[in-house]
């Protein structure tokens, strides 16, 4: 049964990757009428992509996801709320540093900006914002605060910062927020938030455990906008 389950998971990964690859190949050959540069390398790359993604996701849901759920549930043993917030900030910050999508984006930004925006600077700025957003989300859960009361002031802050931020950083901020929602951060941070919400009295995990990813993305946007203002100054 385990073998069949593993094969089924692998098939699901293939169903996710292969249609996209086929669409791109057909578009390249039929619409653009351009040949594939290296067919052998392309096929090997697709196989590596399928198996790499399969084993990565399998590893995340076998190890990091249940561990994060356990950590979230046990955060209540910490005596002070601010110590819980500091802990989740550190987890969010470190998790963002290893997010592959963010690293790819940061390298592209550094290349296009001809080194004016170093990739490490952007990654750490996004990680700080993500960690702060994670802390705000956990603060919301601990104090049973509705989502609207938290997200509306943050959105107003973003709209205010946009007027003072260089245009290029506004675009980068939006993409940075999306880049943080990758295969590392989402399982870990969502599991922590839901695990914590399940352990608190008078807290509905469905109403308060979710929404944490949106807040972390909002924090990432704010941090990059501030980085743009500081660069301008």
From TrEMBL:
- Record keyword Membrane present: yes
Q: Does the keyword Zinc apply?
A: no
Q: Which InterPro entries match?
A: UmpAB (IPR011435)
Write out the entry's keywords from A to Z: Membrane, Transmembrane, Transmembrane helix
Q: Where is the signal peptide?
A: none
Transmembrane stretches, by residue range? Answer: 14-32, 44-62, 82-102, 122-141, 147-165, 206-230
Q: What is this protein called?
A: DUF1538 domain-containing protein
Origin species, per record, is Acetomicrobium flavidum
């Amino acid at each position: 049964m385990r073998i069949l389950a593993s094969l089924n998971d692998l098939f699901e990964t293939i169903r996710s990757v292969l249609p996209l690859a086929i669409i791109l190949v057909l578009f390249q050959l039929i619409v653009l009428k351009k040949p594939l540069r290296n067919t052998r390398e392309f096929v090997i790359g697709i196989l590596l992509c399928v198996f790499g993604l399969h084993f990565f996701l399998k590893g995340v849901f076998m190890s990091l996801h249940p561990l994060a759920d356990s950590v979230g549930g046990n955060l209540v043993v910490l005596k002070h709320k601010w110590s819980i917030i500091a802990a989740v900030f550190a987890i969010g910050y470190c998790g963002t540093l290893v997010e592959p999508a963010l690293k790819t984006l940061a390298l592209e930004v550094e290349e296009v900006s001809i080194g004016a925006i170093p990739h490490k600077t952007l990654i750490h700025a996004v990680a700080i914002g993500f960690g702060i957003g994670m802390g705000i989300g956990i603060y919301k859960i601990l104090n049973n605060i509705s989502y609207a009361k938290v997200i509306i002031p943050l959105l107003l802050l973003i709209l205010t910062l946009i007027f003072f931020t260089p245009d290029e950083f506004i675009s980068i901020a939006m993409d940075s927020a999306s880049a943080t929602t990758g295969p590392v951060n989402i399982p870990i941070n969502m599991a922590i938030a839901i695990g914590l919400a399940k352990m608190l009295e008078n807290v509905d995990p469905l109403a308060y455990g979710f929404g944490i990813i949106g807040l972390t993305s909002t924090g990432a946007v704010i941090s990059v906008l501030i980085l743009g203002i500081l660069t301008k100054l």
